């Protein structure tokens, strides 16, 4: 069954720049050139939240892994961390000296990586938004930066036509991929962490193996590619392009699977849900669209294996002997037969408990940050009052 348009949201007053689903799929965040962040409820008839705080265009949004925080970056040079509820409280910090193009949480939710027109990539703690370090070898605007799934690597994409791979511990650039013929708009890690995909103004999408630093696949389109997102299975990639289309690429066979039309004007951003059954897109038409994947409806027994060579599409070619970057099974019928039911239940219970603890930490972190900001404001007001009182007393004395 082909992917189908499920819902579309209207509320932004300018081009949509970024979309992201919460972990539980109950909410969808979007950023826009209208300087607002919108939180859409996936439940019918539920009102959306409009968060106002940024002084200029919101370029990027992302939910924290637990879904209890949303980070946004803006042309006003700041990053905000929001609690996605009715109050829409947020903390703000000046992250860069120019537009913030990209924000991304590490998988443990403890760090954020940001990318900016000031040509740097920066890493921050989520708690207190403490600056940790900067990566600064790009020689033009940095459009996008992402942590690897295990948090050990960072990848960045720039208008200097390079994609750079960084070691988070040593803070050194370990490789530069220079195959793009234009600006690189977007980059992300494959769910396995062993590959990256990048989209560019040269109308291409390229997939590299980061272990051997070699190009695996290359897709040539007809229009600037603005954004991409890996399906959680790692078998598919969805892209958003200036020709108003969304394209779904089959990475196993190295071919174009679907071309979807929905937006009027450039499709600017796209993202799969964490489960992969939905994906969202945004466009210059001010609309946010939610699509049902459908191609993921495969029986539990079906196993998808890498193909030895990709079938060619007009203008598309596949390089490398096989796509060997962890793209394997879509689903497996059973867990290890040697593990008993009780062990599985214990592990599930432990995972749920840890998930709950992480959620509470997120909320506490944000609450502490908000209280600290309010305390600072109160202290500033008290100082101002004292100074005014002193001036009045001096005037009376004189």
UniProtKB/TrEMBL annotation:
Tell me where the WD repeats sit in this chain: 9-50, 51-82, 93-134, 135-176, 177-218, 225-259, 260-292
Which region ranges are annotated with the description Disordered?
Answer: 301-324
UniProt-listed Pfam families: WD40 (PF00400)
Q: Where are the transmembrane segments?
A: none
From what superkingdom does this record's organism come?
A: Eukaryota
Instruction: List, alphabetically, the SUPFAM superfamilies matched.
Output: WD40 repeat-like
Q: Which SMART domains match?
A: WD40
Q: Which UniProt keywords apply?
A: Coiled coil, Repeat, WD repeat
Give the record's GO CC terms.
centriole; ciliary basal body
Biological process according to GO: cilium assembly; microtubule-based process; multicellular organismal-level homeostasis
Recorded hits in PROSITE patterns, A to Z, give: WD_REPEATS_1, WD_REPEATS_2, WD_REPEATS_REGION
InterPro entries, sorted:
WD40/YVTN_repeat-like_dom_sf (IPR015943), WD40_PAC1 (IPR020472), WD40_repeat_CS (IPR019775), WD40_repeat_dom_sf (IPR036322), WD40_rpt (IPR001680), WDR55/POC1 (IPR050505)
Role summary: May play an important role in centriole assembly and/or stability and ciliogenesis.
The similarity comment for this entry is: Belongs to the WD repeat POC1 family.
Question: What is the protein's name according to its record?
Answer: POC1 centriolar protein homolog A
Q: Which organism is it from?
A: Atrichornis clamosus
The uppermost taxa in this organism's lineage are: Eukaryota, Metazoa, Chordata, Craniata, Vertebrata
> Encoded by which gene?
Poc1a
